[in-house]
Write a structure and sequence with these properties.
Layout lengths: L1 H33 L3 H42 L5 H14 L2 H13 L6 H24 L5 H14 L5 H13 L3 H17 L5 H5 L2 H22 L8
């Protein structure tokens, strides 16, 4: 119980250190320039308090559940069950992205900004499939010791080519999606799983082979969303994106 409280206190101070500069910055602007009414200030500070409380609970949960669970799953499949690694990577990449809050926010914003032409569900399925594919490729990279450069360099060369063919409205969405999918679900769970796999897999180096997953996950939606933009550009426009 004492160690649990110590962990929560450590996370509490980390969160306070993170958001304190933002609160100070906002307070100075409020005093000098903004002059917001007291009712709005109460809502803002209540929101900041709830945000800090949520971050404390989330980070404590990550440290005690997501990271150990991801590592344990990776070590299990990276040892005696390595033949299942590629489909497991695909499935967990799909589920982690489907549950990622930042991905859902992006999808809703895309649908709203496009006036409903680009459906949120279509974006959600596209991004989930993209991350699933790259997570599976990452597992193959660890199993077969494929150098990281052999994947990431051709991937970005493909992105450069797609820039010339994709519908221009999808280019900005694609690069923002790359940041959205690398949220807390992917970083905390999938990366710990990759490290667990690299630790348990014979001949793999946890540092050389375990890292790089997040870069590949960030690349995945860029390619897939731009491919969607290519399809839209050459198949009748946005009215087909329903």
């Amino acid at each position: 119980m004492i160690s649990g409280m110590e962990e929560i206190l450590a996370v509490f101070f980390e969160v306070i250190q993170s958001i304190a500069p933002l609160i100070i910055f906002f307070t100075l602007f409020q005093i000098l320039y903004l002059k917001l009414p007291p009712t709005q200030l109460k809502k803002l500070y209540l929101g900041l308090t709830l945000t800090a409380f949520g971050m404390i609970l989330f980070l404590h949960g990550v440290n005690n559940s997501f990271l150990p669970a991801g590592t344990a799953i990776g070590e299990f499949f990276g040892g005696s069950k390595k033949n299942f690694l590629i489909p497991i990577g695909f499935l967990l990449g799909l589920l982690a992205t489907f549950a990622e809050p930042s991905v859902r926010v992006l999808c809703y914003q895309v649908e709203e900004s496009s006036g409903g032409y680009i459906r949120a569900n279509l974006m959600l399925y596209t991004l989930s499939l993209a991350v699933a594919m790259l997570a599976a490729i990452t597992m193959a990279k660890i199993i077969y010791r494929i150098p990281f450069l052999y994947i990431i360099v051709p991937g970005y060369l493909l992105v450069l080519i797609l820039l010339f063919f994709s519908d221009r409205d999808f280019i900005g969405i694609a690069f923002d999606a790359g940041g959205a999918v690398t949220g807390p679900m992917a970083v905390s769970f999938l990366m710990s799983m990759a490290l667990g796999v690299a630790t348990a897999h014979e001949g793999a180096d946890p540092v050389a082979d375990g890292f790089g997953l997040i870069a590949m996950i960030a690349l995945a939606p860029i390619i897939f969303v731009m491919l969607l933009g290519v399809y839209i550009r050459f198949n009748g426009g946005k009215n087909n994106v329903q």
